[in-house]
UniProtKB/TrEMBL annotation, chain A:
Single biological process term from Gene Ontology: reciprocal meiotic recombination
Name of the protein this chain belongs to: Pachytene checkpoint protein 2 homolog
Gene source species: Denticeps clupeoides (denticle herring)
General function of this protein: Plays a key role in chromosome recombination and chromosome structure development during meiosis. Required at early steps in meiotic recombination that leads to non-crossovers pathways. Also needed for efficient completion of homologous synapsis by influencing crossover distribution along the chromosomes affecting both crossovers and non-crossovers pathways.
Gene responsible for this protein: TRIP13
Ranges in a coiled coil: none
Entry keyword annotation includes Nucleotide-binding: yes
Automatic annotation (TrEMBL), chain B:
One of the protein's GO biological processes: regulation of exit from mitosis
Domain of life of the source: Eukaryota
Residue stretches in coiled coil: none
Name of this protein: MAD2L1 binding protein
Cross-referenced Pfam families: p31comet
GO (cellular component) term, any one: nucleus
Region (Disordered): 45-64
Organism (species): Denticeps clupeoides (denticle herring)
Length: 458, 294
């Protein structure tokens, strides 16, 4: 959400509307835009995170998959008073292709996606961070493009187009990079005809030949340069685990690091300085070990964002999305309505038939127990819980599309979180105590109330 | 064009396996009529037709002429049929795959060999795979992909006018290693009775291609993936090909253009082309062809 000046001089809220067009649709963007604007005219006040997938109109039914207003930071939006920016996009199903440095090289130096990619869809929504990290990153990239547009002298005001995300593993650094690229490729689709995402395999840039590694890095950046040369393309370069390419050079003073590694760092630094002149490139880097990164590289990163473990609110949202997915796949049935944290707050966490399911993840026991776990561990819990405590899966033949045999009643799902949380620490389940808890969980899974008491005793 | 002639041509293309030079192979069938081009060709003692030294026939200055390094202009002296256009595309696809070393022999030869091999396997009751022999499973996969693309092309051509076709080898859709474009925007379409025979046009086309030498095979090429894109009407209702609304023809790759057209003075189109191609969008073939070598 941002403020833009309209012609009358007063400010209006700009709302981004993302329209996902069906892959087989051949309708022109103008037609789609016209129909979507007409469709939105029928709606006035909506929540900030709303998605329509079913339409009455024939044209929209045939051509459009979904219309989404993706602005979770605002509670409700009055569409009449807003400037609607409609982004129309189709997903690319091609999957990744590889970039090779040498003709006869078997190992690929980089993976390459055409954005918006089907693989990356939905990551942005699934990531939960506090303090508006996602919005900040979006604004950062918009600003780099804005400054380039205004021809700001980069000698006077410096920006390097480098973002460094760091923090403990499993909290969504790499996913955030992919999601950010996807989101920007959608938001900037009017400006750039297509976007590309290049993920560099750092380890493939080290050669067995002495002094060859630095050259490989240069070659890699030359390949990227080829992509950037096309001004219609927005290019995102992801260097995952960047410390392998930019290891602190002073470590070599101790004689433990060969000078070839220094050349690699030098090469990366000089190439980054070359590449930053182009307005259509963003370099995204991630690292677990910031203290190992060369200072000169750290200095070049415009944004150094720490991505820590999720907060209590984040944990709630993660569990809630897990529950939603399990219901969608009919592993938990029947499907029940899930309330957001905001909605629970308005009813002061009162327990009722409607709120019962939503209250499970927000109970202080689970929140307390889950604090400090990484996002990856949290999202693994439902899977582990099913694997270790349900164990009644009958696998159907592939061709058979019947619902799975093992379905849980919503109340028994409470055991998923309770039983695992009592056993796991930092995502690990200990074998011995798991056994006893498993027995307990089996006995109590018949009745949700029992489980709640069980959690309280723990 | 009647069906029996087309069948005959399939065999013609598959036959000349024993010739050593790849370039010679496609012009050996010119032992019948070939119209304008044959007047400038010299017949060798072996009965083969060698290309003339001067590339431009005296009677028709624009046929065939390579305007620049990467452009081949082929002007047909009359109208061609819609099925004929499809045939040109299919044959050029087969030819590019072979000349650019994505297939160890021409498509038609491979199909023939595969059938033979399958027959042998049935007789021998066991797979005949030995050291140095072909991996027939891979071969079969590639042939199946080519066949599928050819079938889908036929369907597409029957549903819509196809002014341009792209053959992209290697790399990605945005930055392929090699790019061949078949431009048929200026082709005058006619019905079977008052159009040129497809076989005659094919000979003229391949003569022009080999004289211009746009498919060199001197240097070894690694195996790549071939993607076929075609421009067709947005409402044609094709189901096999997938629309790529955002696709733009890559500009940073050297493009080899084969431009087919009809001599306007001789042939006035029976079906008028649209003045602009605004309603034509790019469609991508549902399968990519992965190269295969022994």
């Amino acid at each position: 959400m941002e403020l833009v000046e309209d012609c009358g001089g007063t400010s209006a809220l700009a709302v981004h509307v993302e329209v996902l067009v069906k892959p087989r649709s051949t309708a022109s963007k103008t037609d789609v835009r016209m129909h979507v604007v007409a469709f939105l005219d029928h709606h006035r006040v909506i929540t900030g995170n709303h998605r329509w997938t079913e339409f009455d109109e024939q044209f929209l039914r045939q051509n459009v998959d979904s219309v989404a207003i993706a602005d979770p930071e605002r509670g409700t939006i009055d569409l009449k008073g807003c400037n609607l920016t409609v982004h129309i996009f189709t997903l690319n199903n091609d999957g990744l292709s590889t970039l090779n440095l040498e003709e006869d090289e078997e190992l690929s130096a980089a993976n390459h996606w055409l954005l918006p990619a089907a693989e990356f869809q939905g990551i942005w929504e699934s990531l939960v961070f506090e303090d508006g990290v996602k919005t900040q990153l979006l604004d950062y990239v918009s600003t780099t493009i804005f400054f380039s547009d205004k021809n700001v002298n980069s000698n006077l005001i410096t920006w390097n187009r480098v973002v460094l995300l760091h923090g403990p593993p499993g909290n969504g650094k790499t996913s955030l990079c992919k999601a950010l690229a996807q989101k920007l490729s959608i938001r900037l689709s009017d400006r750039y005809t297509y976007s590309q995402f290049v993920e560099i395999n750092s380890h493939s840039l080290f050669s067995k030949w002495f002094s060859e590694s630095g050259k490989l890095v240069t070659k890699m950046f030359q390949k990227i340069q080829q992509l950037i040369d096309d001004e219609d393309a927005l290019v995102f370069v992801l260097v995952d685990e960047v410390e392998s390419l930019t290891a602190a050079r002073n470590a070599s003073h101790a004689g433990t690091e060969p000078s070839d590694a220094i050349r690699v760092v030098n090469s990366v630094l000089t190439q980054l300085d070359q590449i930053k002149r182009h307005p259509n490139v963003v370099i995204l880097t991630t690292s677990n070990l910031t203290e190992k990164i060369d200072l000169a590289f750290l200095d070049r990163a415009d944004i150094k964002q720490k991505i820590g473990p999720p907060s209590t609110e984040g944990i709630f949202n993660i569990y809630m999305s897990c529950l939603g997915e399990l219901m969608k796949c009919q592993i938990i049935s029947p499907r029940q309505q899930l309330l957001t944290l905001h909605e629970l707050e308005t009813i002061s966490f009162m327990e009722s038939n409607v709120s019962q399911m939503s209250l499970i993840p927000s109970s202080c026991f689970i929140s307390r127990k889950s604090k400090g776990l990484s996002g990856r561990s949290l999202r693994r819990l439902p899977f582990l819980a099913h694997a270790l405590f349900v164990k009644v899966v009958v696998l159907e033949p592939l061709s058979n599309n019947l619902p799975p045999a093992a379905t849980l009643s919503p109340s028994s799902d409470i055991t998923f979180f309770c039983s695992l949380d009592s056993n796991c620490h930092a995502g690990k389940v200990s074998g011995g105590s798991g056994q006893s808890s498993r027995q307990r969980a089996r006995g109590q899974s018949k009745d949700g109330q029992l489980c709640m008491r069980h959690s309280a005793t723990l | 064009m009647d069906g029996s002639v087309l069948l005959g041509e399939q065999e013609e293309l598959a036959r000349p396996i024993l010739l050593t030079s790849r370039t010679e192979r496609f012009i050996t069938d010119s032992d019948k009529e070939i119209g304008v081009v044959e007047n400038n060709a010299t017949r060798t003692a072996a009965g083969r037709v060698e290309p003339a030294q001067d590339q431009v026939p005296a009677s028709d200055p624009s046929d065939p002429v390579a305007k620049e390094e990467c452009m081949v202009d082929v002007v047909f002296p009359g109208r061609v049929t819609k099925e004929g256009c499809c045939r040109f595309v299919c044959e050029i696809l087969k030819c590019v795959l072979y000349q650019r070393q994505q297939l160890p022999m021409t498509y038609d030869q491979l199909v023939y060999h595969q059938k033979q091999q399958q027959a042998e396997e049935i007789v021998a009751w066991r797979p005949l795979r030995a050291a140095g022999e072909w991996d027939w499973r891979k071969c079969h996969r590639t042939l199946q992909a080519v066949e599928e693309v050819l079938t889908h092309l036929e369907i597409l051509f029957s549903l819509s006018l196809v002014p341009r076709v792209l053959l992209m080898l290697g790399g990605s859709v945005l930055l392929p290693k090699e790019l061949y474009e078949l431009n048929m925007e200026d082709v005058s379409l006619g019905t079977g009775d008052c159009s040129l025979r497809t076989s005659v046009c094919l000979r003229q086309l391949f003569r022009a291609l080999f004289v211009a030498d746009i498919l060199p095979d001197a240097r070894p090429v690694r195996l790549m993936t071939t993607t076929v894109m075609a421009l067709a009407h947005r409402d044609c209702g094709v189901t096999g090909f997938c629309p790529k609304m955002n696709f733009r023809v890559p500009v940073r790759v050297k493009k080899q253009v084969i431009r087919l057209s009809c001599d306007r003075s001789v042939a006035r189109a029976m079906l008028e082309h649209p003045s602009d191609w605004a309603d034509y969008v790019w469609f991508q073939a549902p399968v990519n062809i992965k190269g295969f070598c022994k």
